[in-house]
Design a protein that fits this description.
By secondary structure, the chain is an alpha/beta fold. The chain has 15 helices and 13 strands. A seven-stranded mixed β-sheet has the order 1-9-8-5-4-2-3, sandwiched between helices. The chain has a three-stranded antiparallel β-sheet with strand order 7-6-11, with no helix packed on it. A hairpin with a 2-residue loop joins β6 and β7. α1 packs antiparallel against α10, α2 runs parallel beside α10 and α3 crosses α4.
Length: 398
């Protein structure tokens, strides 16, 4: 039996939707993308959504829109993928990295609070595995240090505090305290990469909260301009022969998402509740089969939260890195591909070159040392789910 880690679940209705766009004559950013953005806005209970070509682009777009740049600081966890932090470097701001809480993949609110200085302009919190952060606690930490905040542009002045950005690459559809991912942070970036619950191949989106103190139509227009070279008209708007002329308002990047990809996302969003439900069925079965092993899995359901069921993170109690890696090799030999989420940022060359050391982030290193991620996707059959969990169990107990 061969079980891949996370293949995309592409169905006939998805293929048909993409073919329809290919036949339409309009394959770049256009009407289908508009429909997808509107559907995401409604699904996430957000004020608005702009489609981008990756979650990374969405995070950087958030920082650019907020006016974050040289001289500013942005706080980010050490336990995350590089995209959460690299965007801070891209805009010329200083990366302030914080450790996670002991035995956790998340940062303690007091740690966020203590890291805020007079230069802090934003926090980028990360929804690991599809479990939402406790944003209420993060906002409280921000408010406790509000007197240190010094705005440097009009948007920062309107917000009046450190902005909260969520790297929600994993958490589309997750809920905490009755609020869905995309509705609670000032700005939320999603990923639609091939391994995500909902995929457009590559792609992403940036949503913003209804509570963000902006004119939402103007803000959306600003984001769209920043996504398309700083151009004051979309390609669709320029199609009218009388309206071909355009201006470039700022030398911006090109981060827009094509309609070919948006069609795939829109099709999958229609069945997204079914996708999340199936992922939770698999999580429950894994938990049942592994319940008598010396392991701990990340909780996906609690009194006040339910995750999107994106990743199954398993801690192999007492394992060293070498033992964890040997377990992954043994699973692969048995036909099961596993992964690790994540190698902490200070373990990576790029961040070591920026002066970061794992010695300063012992909790992140401890979480990484014995973590393994089992396959979790909607292409898994019940038989394959049983095989993955039973194989893991046998290896752990041997």
């Amino acid at each position: 039996m061969h079980i891949p880690f996370s293949p995309p679940d592409i169905r006939q209705e998805d293929i048909d939707a993409v073919v329809d766009v290919l036949k339409s004559g309009w394959i770049t950013s256009g009407p289908v993308g508009t429909q997808f953005a509107q559907a995401l806005t409604e699904y996430c209970d957000a004020a608005g959504t702009v489609l981008v070509n990756s979650c990374t682009a969405g995070l950087e777009l958030a920082l650019v829109a907020l006016g974050v740049g040289p001289g500013d600081e942005v706080i980010v966890p050490a336990y995350t993928y590089t995209a959460s932090a690299s965007v801070i470097h891209h805009v010329g701001a200083t990366i302030v990295m914080v450790d996670v809480a002991p035995g956790s993949y998340f940062v303690d609110p007091s740690t966020w609070e203590n890291a805020i200085t007079e230069r802090t302009k934003a926090i980028i919190a990360v929804d690991i595995a599809g479990v939402m952060n406790d944003t209420t606690a993060i906002y409280r930490a921000i408010e406790n240090r509000k007197e240190l905040f010094h705005p440097t542009n009009s948007l920062q002045e309107k917000i009046g505090r450190v902005a909260l950005i969520i790297d929600a690459a994993h958490s589309l559809g997750a809920v905490r305290n009755g609020a869905i991912s995309g509705s609670v942070a000032d700005l939320t970036a999603f990923s639609f990469h091939a391994v995500k619950n909902l995929t457009t191949g590559e792609g992403g989106a940036l949503c913003w909260s209804k509570n963000l103190p902006v004119d939402h139509d103007d803000f959306e227009r600003t984001l769209r301009i920043l996504c398309l070279h700083g151009q004051d008209k979309s390609a669709l708007e320029k199609m009218n022969a009388a309206a071909w002329e355009y201006d470039i308002l700022t030398p911006a990047f090109k981060w827009n998402l094509a309609d070919i990809m948006a069609a795939l996302g829109l099709s999958q969003l229609k069945r997204y509740p079914e996708i999340i439900s199936r992922r939770h069925e698999i999580i429950d079965r894994y938990d049942d089969i592994l319940s008598d092993t010396p392991t701990t899995s990340l909780m996906h359901v609690g009194e006040d939260f339910r995750s999107s069921g994106h990743l199954y993170l398993l801690t192999l109690t007492g394992y060293s890195v070498a033992q964890r890696n040997a377990f992954i090799d043994d699973m692969y030999e048995a036909g099961v591909s596993c992964n690790v989420h994540y190698k902490p940022l200070p373990e990576l060359t790029a961040y070591q070159n920026l002066g970061f050391s794992s010695a300063d982030y012992p909790q992140a290193l401890a979480q990484y040392t014995s973590e393994v991620t089992l396959p979790l996707h909607t292409c898994l059959s019940d038989e394959q789910v049983e095989y993955v969990a039973s194989t893991a169990r046998n290896l752990i107990l041997k």
